[in-house]
Amino acid sequence: MSPIVKDDRVLEFTCIICPMGCRLRATLKDGKVCSVEGNRCPRGIVYAQNEVEPKRILISVVKVIGGNLPVVSVKTSEPMPKEMMPEAMKILSNVTVQAPVKIGQIIIKDFLGLKINVIATRNVDPVQPS
Amino acid sequence: MMGENYDLAIIGGGPSGLASAIRAWKMGVESIVLLEESNFLGGVLPQCIHPGFGLHYFREDLTGPEFAAKLLDQLKSTGVNVLSGSYAEHLEIKSSGEKEISGYMYGRAFKVKCKAVIYAAGCRERSRFEVNILGDRPVGVYTAGEAQTLMDMYGVLPGSEIVVVGSGDVGLIMARRFALEGADVKAVVEVMPYPGGLTRNIVQCLEDFHIPLYLSCMVTEIKGSGRVEGVKIVRVDEKLNPINGSENYLKCNAVILAVGLKPRVELLAKAGALIDEATGGPVVNDWLETTIPGVFAAGNVLVINDLVDYAAEQGERAAESAAKLIHEGLPAFKFKRVVLGRNVRLIVPHLISCIQDVTFYGRVGKPEENVQFRFEEIGRAFKLPIARPSEMFRFKISADDLLRLRDEKIMVNVVKV
Fold this sequence. Notes:
The structure holds two protein chains of two kinds.
Chain A: E1 10-14, E2 23-29, E3 32-37, H1 43-52, E4 55-56, E5 59-65, E6 71-76, E7 80-81, H2 85-92, E8 96-98, E9 106-108, E10 118-120
Parallel strand pairs in A: 5-8
Antiparallel strand pairs in A: 1-2, 2-3, 4-7, 5-6, 6-10, 9-10
Chain B: E1 4-11, H1 15-26, E2 32-36, H2 64-76, E3 81-84, E4 86-93, E5 99-105, E6 108-119, E7 123-125, E8 134-135, E9 141-143, H3 144-152, E10 161-165, H4 169-180, E11 184-189, H5 199-206, E12 213-214, E13 217-223, E14 230-235, E15 248-251, E16 254-257, E17 261-263, H6 266-270, E18 295-297, H7 308-327, E19 336-340, E20 344-348, E21 351-352, E22 358-364, E23 368-375, E24 380-387, E25 393-397, H8 399-402, E26 409-416
Parallel strand pairs in B: 1-2, 1-6, 2-3, 6-18, 8-13, 9-16, 10-11, 10-16, 11-12, 19-26
Antiparallel strand pairs in B: 4-5, 5-6, 7-17, 13-14, 14-15, 19-21, 20-22, 22-25, 23-24, 23-26
């Protein structure tokens, strides 16, 4: 976590909570959101607070050995900081799991020290030995 | 299995077909067959590994494969007979009203007889030739769905320098997937002066990954011998005509087409069902019954939906109707017409009986702010702060309100307030 610094910027972004896409203007005081303008509903304020440190659910695929598919789709169990995505993708591209993989199975525990898991989002069955 | 008899046959094992099979079983239909042409169930869901599915239907944020798994779990506890690998080619209505479906199953002919049919065959993606992209035919030109299958089922990136054609939600979501997997997404090219997808997808798919969006631009030609080498892009005027001298060349090794979807109505049309030009799907009444009695339609073959949740909901609706038909018959009606008014491009159902609640699904023709959707003849109106063609509208009107309809038709108008 970054130390608390004097951060009094004014940030502008588009709210993506719902399809309206409100243009928000958030004023920071010491790195914290102190006021939000442009939101049509209260969810915009919460969004602005989160957007100062933006988070998204990350999805990708990881390699599977011995499965009926060569990869399994995965997601993070919770949204993770957006700026850590490139690093996260690099790690996932080097992960290999063994079939069978069950939907909901934890692929990586405590991913990047974020206290969230990477979990499988589909079943991959083992290939029947012929 | 030649000529097997069932009460209900469902064509298509995607979300609407699965939801209808589960619902019909719960409604007490005990003899159901589900025909699926591929060798897995779930339709497009297994390849859509991004989240955002199921917020309405399951009240949970799920990825596509997770949504499919939930439906398959429910299907397991039914006695629905699933025939995967069976392609339905013909639908014939016997003079007795009995339906006969014939087709191919792993190279062998099959026949199924039934009292009711739910047609849930989904849609297909439009090809480059339907949007006039000429030029060479090299390797590296894929529809968005093909690219998605390659990448998210088989782990193969379709290219390292990619141009996406079409800025609907499908194009935007694919652009993000390519960028995440390390490809250089050169551009998303959109012929209209505004993006086709939701604002939230412009932000989280393009802006998050610094992908350029070229509006009022058109890919006219693909170049490449063997492999894609680049595309010709041209700017267009307000009438979408190419502007002379605005031609540009963009180097890339893959072109991804996200240029719209078309309902797969061929079987229905051949069987004589009336097709609506606006939706591309069959004309239906409020039982979701096509103009062929006892043949119902649901999901993307009925109307291209924004949300899988709506496709599943339509599947359930069709199942309820089919169950009623099988158990007690549907009442005969002089249906009233739903008429497209100002700025309404399409709407389903097309015909209503006015004796039951109706969920209307539709799209506007052009973007407008602060509008009212007016069902004039019964004095019902719904306010929306914004209406966009890319966002389906969905309104439920109760039987009580519809009973007030005295005219032979009901017109839906979008008006500025």
